[in-house]
Write a structure and sequence with these properties.
Helices cover 40% and strands 6% of the residues. The chain is mostly helical. Among the domains are: 5-223 and 324-352, Orthogonal Bundle (Hypothetical protein af1432), CATH 1.10.3210.10; 432-495, no CATH class. A two-stranded antiparallel sheet has the order 1-8. Helix 15 runs antiparallel to helix 18 (417-427). It is globular.
């Protein structure tokens, strides 16, 4: 694997080297001994695959005008996309931070919506600012430290679907390489599907090399509204009403400019000169109805014409044509893409959502919550931060890795005793036997089967009740919709 010298320079920074100490699968390593890989090698793999895909597009479609700066930016985005992961990867941002009681003020508001992508962008800024020789090297390779760095951050954390791309709107397909918010098919998944499957011993049938080979950039007209393709009509609104057939129209069944509602195309209506069900086609009568000026039971439908005011026209929500460029693939590759999503399903079912993995994740989260205020991390300006507030200071966050597990486990402070006891049970494999369950109110066999299929209870009890037990296997009183041991009973906790 060959990498650009600038990528190697980024890899050699403390901010990137931190990823060596964050397990890719978090608590999964404590269940699958082979899953010892880290975010470090995954990030390098994503940076490499991002370069392979964008180079392939440049070679096959010169008209896209992909230049060296574009390629380098995409590679850097792939390399740095996971800089913001905390201890035990998704456990930190998906389980720990949401359960921390947010302090009042801006910090509390930030913690309510914080995700690791936010930290990845901030950590990338910190990485660039903390390494002056890196900035010089970026300039030497032709990068614009203002525009290109913003473009990289925009690829790491793409804007919301309704917002437009700011840095490279004319090359919108570049945003779909590292973090594809449109289809979910990106090189991030290409790498971790292959890497996780290899270390877990789970078969991966998806061939990312084949996808890269057949990928092409096309101008795609998005489907908007009720599944209508905007390339079928110039402008369209409502349910099946064509705006090139009528000048102005609103409401259902209202006649505008001499045209009636029943003159519109729909199911069982005239289309391309073909006779519909009970309607006239090419001047032929249907079952008592005529195409022009239809009659029902000998009576002409009474349709009232309504004056359309100018302000009404201005309020019409006209569909806009999205002609952005997107990464597409051949129709014959549908089976390969099916394998991609099936691999994702298999990994979640057999590893990511494994019962024991979820138990250990809840135990580690509980330990982190109890230790939160007692873990002190030195950040910028000599300020001290806790386990949860370190996300607001990237110098402190750089020091926060999976090593905090051993820090708590080997501590002697009395204020960490409860957290230490929980982690000791994790190491000794004295796991919680049950986190919780749900007793459905459904009584019919069909309903129970649907419930079982939905929550993955195929081979378990059909009506599991909510039960808590200690590590000594002493049954605790059944509870419902309450918290115990710091873990809330939820559908995801059914065991």
């Amino acid at each position: 694997m060959e990498l650009h010298p600038l990528l190697v320079k980024i890899i050699d920074t403390p901010q990137f080297q931190r990823l060596r100490y964050i397990k890719q699968l978090g608590a999964g390593y404590l269940v699958y001994p082979g899953a010892s890989h880290n975010r470090f090698e995954h990030s390098i793999g994503v940076g490499y695959l991002a370069g392979e895909l964008v180079k392939a597009l440049k070679e096959k479609q010169p008209e896209l005008d992909i230049n060296k700066r574009d390629i380098l930016c995409v590679q850097i985005a792939g390399l740095c996309h996971d800089l913001g992961h905390g201890p035990f990867s998704h456990l930190f941002d998906a389980m720990f931070i949401p359960k921390v009681t947010p302090p009042p003020g801006p910090l509390g508001e930030k913690m309510k919506t914080w995700k690791h992508e936010d930290a990845s962008v901030e950590m990338f800024d910190h990485l660039v600012d903390s390494n002056e020789d890196l900035q010089w090297m970026m300039k030497a390779y032709g990068l614009n430290l203002t525009k290109d760095l913003e473009f990289i951050k925009e690829m790491i954390k793409p804007p919301e679907a309704k917002k437009k791309y700011e840095c490279r709107p004319e090359k919108s397909f570049l945003y779909e390489i590292v973090n594809n918010k449109r289809t979910g098919i990106d090189v991030d998944k290409f790498d971790y599907f292959a890497r996780d499957s290899y270390h877990l011993g789970i078969k991966n049938n998806f061939d990312h090399g084949r996808f890269i080979k057949f990928a092409r950039v096309c101008e795609v007209d998005e489907q908007k509204g009720d599944g209508q393709k905007v390339d079928e009509v110039d402008e369209q609104k409502g349910d099946g009403q064509k705006m090139d057939e009528v000048d102005e129209q609103k409401g259902d069944g209202q006649k505008v400019d001499g045209q009636e509602e029943d003159g519109q195309e729909g199911d069982g209506q005239e289309e391309d000169g073909q006779e519909g069900d009970g309607q006239e086609g090419d001047g032929q009568e249907g079952d008592g109805q005529e195409g022009d000026g239809q009659e029902e039971d000998g009576q002409e439908e009474d349709v009232q014409e309504e004056d359309v005011q100018e302000e009404d026209v201005l309020e019409v929500d006209v569909l806009e044509v999205d002609r952005q460029k997107h990464i597409c693939t051949r129709d014959k590759e549908v089976n390969n893409l099916y394998d991609l999503f099936h691999t994702r399903y298999s990994l979640h079912r057999r590893a990511y959502q494994h019962n024991v993995v979820k138990i250990i994740e809840h135990m580690i989260t509980e330990a982190f919550l109890k230790a939160d205020e007692h873990i002190q991390i030195k950040g910028s300006g000599g300020r001290m931060f806790t386990l949860s507030t370190a996300i607001t200071d990237m110098e402190a966050y750089t020091k926060l890795t999976d090593c905090v597990f051993d820090q708590i486990l080997n501590s002697t402070e009395d204020n960490l005793r409860e957290a230490r006891e929980i982690l000791t049970k994790v190491v000794d494999r004295k796991h919680y036997r049950f986190l919780g369950g749900i007793k459905p109110r459904i009584q019919t066999e069909r309903g129970l089967c649907s419930f079982a299929c939905y929550y993955g209870l195929w081979e378990r009890e059909r009506t599991p009740s909510i039960v808590w037990t200690s590590t000594a296997r002493k049954t605790l009183p059944s509870i419902q919709n309450q918290e115990r041991r710091g873990v809330q009973a939820s559908p995801s906790a059914v065991l």
